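Maltose/moltooligosaccharide transporter
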Amino acid sequence: MKKRILGFWEIWNMSFGFLGIQFGFALQGGFMSRIFQTLGADKHDIPLLWIAAPLTGLLVQPIIGYMSDRTWSPKWGRRRPYFLVGAILSSIALFFVPYSPALWIAAGFLWILDASINVSMEPFRALVADKLDESQRTYGFVMQTLIIGIGTWVASNLPWLVSEMGVSDAADLGVVPDSVKIAFAIGAFVFLISILYTVFTTTEYPPEDMEEFEREKAKKNRFISDITNNIGNMPSTMKKLGVIQFFSWFAFFTMWSMANPALTEHVYNTPAPIEANFDMTNSADQEAFKIENTAFQKASNSVGSAMGVYGLSSMAFALLFVFYTSKKNVNRKYVHMLSLIIGGAGFLLMMVVSPEQLKYCFMLIGIAWGSILSMPYAMLSSSVDPKKMGMFMGIFNMFIVIPQIIAALGGINFVSGLLGDDAINAMTIAGLSLIIAGLCNFLITEKAAISYQPTE
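Tokens:
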């Protein structure tokens, strides 16, 4: 079916819900490790505490993709019911996670939060392919990246902004500061409101052949076999993109889980205070702990703020390509390759920068992030059956979560440990991984994936 060419605001409306999703991801990615450290986690244990994020993605996204492919409501459409359910659950989890009284509760909240965000996120990817003509696919995915960039930058700066407004960064042992609690509450509100905006401003196309759709939906107990068959028969482009995704997402998982301990320690020289080093029955030690902990919390605000710059630069990347791809085609392969290598350089420079220069590292990383959020999906959407778009987007998520699972289960500690015990070595490994991902783009040779090919 030839789809109507959509205008800017129509594409903006259908993508706006990603603002909330990215508020959730940015607060999770920028500050969960800080919460874990505040609750007493050792820096070497942090990657494993993050295992919830990739595992829930591995389980949830293929299931939600499969279910949304087989859903249709004349009022709510195909993808929007999942946006709404995920938004409600995510907002509740976001609000309560900084109130966790113990490390295991915070880790449990991360499971709930990440699963809920995935319920909303996966159908958003499929919605772009559902709604847009193939000639607008790159434009649509880049538009999502623009909104994701806005969300990343604003959400990453929330604890710093709240602190600047006078809310305290000081807190007792094992208690998350009020500045973080208020930031997460704001994120929960934005998450829900932005999803509701997309739900009520966007319509969806019904299935092209309703009778065939109903017959497919009536078939029972085919989820496992359908997933297995489609994994076995995935297009070659999808497999090649999977190699690129592996190294890309290993790098970014390393950043999300280890940037706070690495950068507060190496760049700001204010590592998280270790409880065992203080006699908390002694008033002098209590005061010393408070001073060190407040310094760590403020440095964490600064790390989060600097990290938010990667959202800002990905937004600039997306804005440039929104205007360019609305009129012309791009060579997706070489754009993605160059972007990933630039991002890798940003990670490598963290070894030598000052606190004032750290934001420039994240500026380079944002170029890679902007490309990761758009180019692989644009290449993939040109290579799969439109009737199975939700399922294939869910299966494609395997190439995102498997490297994260490997990283969480010891991959980060093992590889960075080859360079030494310093936490900053994890950022070096992230940089090398992104550069390898960039070079793997040479594997992509299919013309339809590299650039939109109009039919005669």
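Residues 207 and 213 are 7 Å apart (CA to CA).
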